[in-house]
Amino acid sequence: MEKPIQLNQANLQEVGSHIPVPNYSRASDKTGIVHIGVGGFHRAHQAYYLHLLNKEGYAQEWGICGIGLREADSKLYDIFKKQDHLYTLIVKHPDGKIEPEVIGSIVDFKMGITNPESVIARIAAADTKIVSLTITEGGYNFNPNTGEFNFDNPDIQHELQNPNDPKTVYGFLTTALKRRRDAGLPAFTILSCDNIEHNGDITRRMMLAFVARQDADLATWIAQEVCFPNSMVDRITPVTTLADIDSLAQNYGVADAWPVTCEPFIQWVVEDKFSNGRPAFEKVGVQFVPDVGPYEKMKLRLLNAGHSVLGLLGALHGHPTINACIEDEVFSSYLRTFLDQEATPILGNIEGIDLEDYKDSLLERFANPNIKDSVSRICSESSAKLPKFLIATVHDNLATGGSIKYATLVIAAWCYYSDKGMDRHGHPIEIIDVMSIELHQAAEQTTTDPLAFIRLESLFGDLIKNEKFTKMYTEVVQKIYTDTNIKKYMKDTI
Length: 494
Ligand code: CS2
Prior knowledge:
- The chain is an alpha/beta fold.
- It has helices at residues 12-15, 40-44, 46-55, 74-83, 116-124, 154-161, 169-182, 199-214, 216-225, 242-252, 293-317, 322-327, 329-343, 355-367, 375-379, 382-400, 405-420, 436-443, 457-460, 467-482, 486-493; strands at residues 5-6, 33-36, 64-68, 87-92, 98-103, 106-111, 130-133, 189-192, 231-234, 254-255, 260-262, 267-271, 287-289.
- The chain has two domains: 5-289, NAD(P)-binding Rossmann-like Domain (Rossmann fold, 3-Layer(aba) Sandwich); 293-493, N-(1-d-carboxylethyl)-l-norvaline Dehydrogenase, domain 2 (Orthogonal Bundle), CATH 1.10.1040.
- Helices cover 47% and strands 11% of the residues.
- Strands 6-3-2-7-8 form a five-stranded parallel β-sheet, with helices on both faces. The chain has a three-stranded mixed β-sheet with strand order 5-4-11.
- A hairpin with a 5-residue loop joins strand 4 and strand 5 (98-103).
- The site of D-mannonic acid has 8 residues, from helix 11.
């Protein structure tokens, strides 16, 4: 095998004889978009849409400057430096077809930890028109039960006392917006791209709660000038594996230290409320609608909830991937019944969407055998995901008298998983969750207090007071603790 070509700007033409490469100019000063949280999802989604626009010649003045606010982002920083911010997106089709393509829409990357001033300056610069975010469901720093901003977070406390030493997204945005206002520059749009219902409204509320404590006048200016569109984002993007890196090198002759893999499906529905202009994303399939609410709810309560249902039950059973879950008849019919009987009834009609088709396509997407999306990715940070994806549906169904038994079994499985950290064969499961200690401490009391897990109020709210739920939950959690044969209970539930 010939030595693979290192992916970078100088080698782009040579790389282009192997796989498609950007055909547009990539000047690092055309960064109308600053994006905070450059994970695989952003690289497979927004950056890909911008790449398509650039390819068509519609986005000459738009490029992305990525921002990393966490220590862990230094890995990407180093790789991007070597690769001139170029990376390969590998689309994996269900029939085995693989389509790698080099994406060039990210043209710069800055680290908040090592160089905060450069990040503030970039966000505050006149040509920054949009600051978009994928900071994960947990990154918004609110209590999912009360919906209030969490002022107890030590980083937030630090920022309130040291406004010029930002650490979180709120600190950086506030410092940069203050500079802009003081310089008489127009505001930018803050565009949340995370899986949270009303993500824009929540970002706005959290941002204003934070800024009001620091500078009331600035809060008023932000409230008037900054748009926070709601948006629904969708593309399944598994964690990149070493096998992905090797196969790109061996089969396509390209050395890329951190490619991204994803499914062919992609969707972005956004409210058209931008403070300072936006790229013509509609030319590449982004849907602009007056109200994203119904789309967000549909996606979170069907796709994301469906993932969590399969992920948590699958982890306990010992299925390694989402497609392995779907191949298992009991899992796929459990999922479909949950979607039909518990998630769909609360959605109502969504204009222009046939929910049956949507669910059929979801199951097909989950079944994609090439994606191999790990249940561990899905289960990670469940404490930030489940309140929004699944527990909200339990609350809704309790209010309307709907079914709750499918979701209840998942919550009981989550309790066992958090307590024991192993599957039913006794194989260890690594629990990746900021709340892992609290989850474990609550769950381990289950044998003496079956409802101990549900007493975690920030996750479950007042579910503990609902007799219908507590009775059902107590029964199933006790069964799981007696015998972890989760598939048996799934069969019994269907
Ligand atoms: C997943 C999502 O995080 C999760 O648990 O459900 O990452 C999902 O793959 C994406 O939202 C798909 O758009």
